[in-house]
């Protein structure tokens, strides 16, 4: 699984970093990014992070967190 934040859709709500602190972090302006690969969507999520990824993905209120089975 690969992920990145569609930053134009992020409202800086903070949920993803709370649910998946090993995957997501915030820029100084509060907009989220995937910290595994600086939001490039090129690095596969390690299996052990999939449960927390799922929580963040499901709870993002705007659908800004994208996922694909292949790199972006
Ligand atoms: Fe933004 Fe969604 Fe995270 S709105 S802060 S990507 S939960």
UniProtKB/TrEMBL annotation:
Keywords: 4Fe-4S, Electron transport, Iron, Iron-sulfur, Metal-binding, Transport. Coiled coil: none annotated. The keyword Transmembrane does not apply. The keyword 4Fe-4S applies. It holds the Pfam family Fer4_13. GO terms for molecular function: 4 iron, 4 sulfur cluster binding; electron transfer activity; iron ion binding. Its cofactor is [4Fe-4S] cluster. PANTHER family: FERREDOXIN. Ferredoxins are iron-sulfur proteins that transfer electrons in a wide variety of metabolic reactions. This is Ferredoxin.
């Amino acid at each position: 699984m690969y992920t990145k934040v569609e930053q134009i859709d992020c409202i800086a709500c903070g949920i993803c970093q709370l649910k998946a602190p090993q995957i997501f972090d915030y820029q100084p302006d509060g907009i989220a990014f995937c910290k595994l690969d600086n939001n490039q969507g090129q690095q596969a999520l390690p299996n052990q992070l999939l449960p927390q990824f799922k929580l963040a993905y499901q709870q993002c209120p705007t659908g800004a967190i994208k996922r694909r089975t292949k790199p972006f």
